[in-house]
Model the fold of this input.
Amino acid sequence: MTTENPFGTITPIISDAVSCGDSCCGDDMASEITHAQLDSITAVVKHYYGNLASSAAELSADASRVKATDKFYSEDQRDALPDEVTGASAGCGNPVGIADSQRGETVLDLGSGGGIDCFLAAREVGNNGYVIGIDMTPRMIELAQKNAATLQTENVVFKLGHIESIPQPDNTVDLVLSNCVIALSEHKDRVFYEIFRILKPGGRFVISDMVTSEALPQDVQKSAAEWVECVGGAAVLSEYLELVEESGFTDIDVVKEDRSRPDAEDWQSTLINLTLRAYKPAE
Ligand SMILES: C[S@@+](CC[C@H](N)C(=O)[O-])C[C@H]1O[C@@H](n2cnc3c(N)ncnc32)[C@H](O)[C@@H]1O
Done:
């Protein structure tokens, strides 16, 4: 069944994978979206990831699913985490795995979901360090807080907020992480402005995100179902890099650039799992 909506068409989502760029939650979740909720992309994204938060344990237990953690994380990283953390994982890379966070650093994760990258960063920064997870979906924040209690972490805090207006003072963060979230924002320029604002001079970001090698077809860009999968809003890589540079970052380094769907022959072959590192200049 398809449903008309202001973005185009909600296509039922049928997939056995759980990671950004694949369907995480089955067609029930897409078909539950009502016309009233489709007033904004934000509402659709919140609805979708709220449902993912509620089914995290169930998704983790489903052996037939290819999980984001299986695709992108090491065995050591997976073993450190309970099912409700790995089950909610919906990234398209492993930014914390290459960010080289140091003891005592302050790390902030944009779109922290169930908290996977926050908990892994917390191990690295130690008790003198501090990790902040930001997410706009209340059910994701609740899940992440519950996961923090299970893991008994004392150096991680989760805050409800938007990545376009980060609830964090200027010049206070050593490292910004994000895993498959900026593709969900309609205001990517604003997100990079905010990352620059909160980083200390000399601070860095390491971000995994979905981008494309060329512009997506209009119907894909207008599809709410593709937006929630981090696909509809994926920017063209060259334009994404321009945004980063225009925001003031230097030493911009494409660390990884893998085809997201290597076997695809249509527009899906243009999707890229990107991991990018860049620095705010030291004063
Ligand atoms: C694809 S999931 C990735 C979650 C997590 N980074 C991971 O790797 O599992 C996207 C997350 O970003 C959050 N999100 C999407 N757009 C956001 C925005 N504009 N501001 C804050 N959070 C957002 C969603 O609620 C969801 O939890």
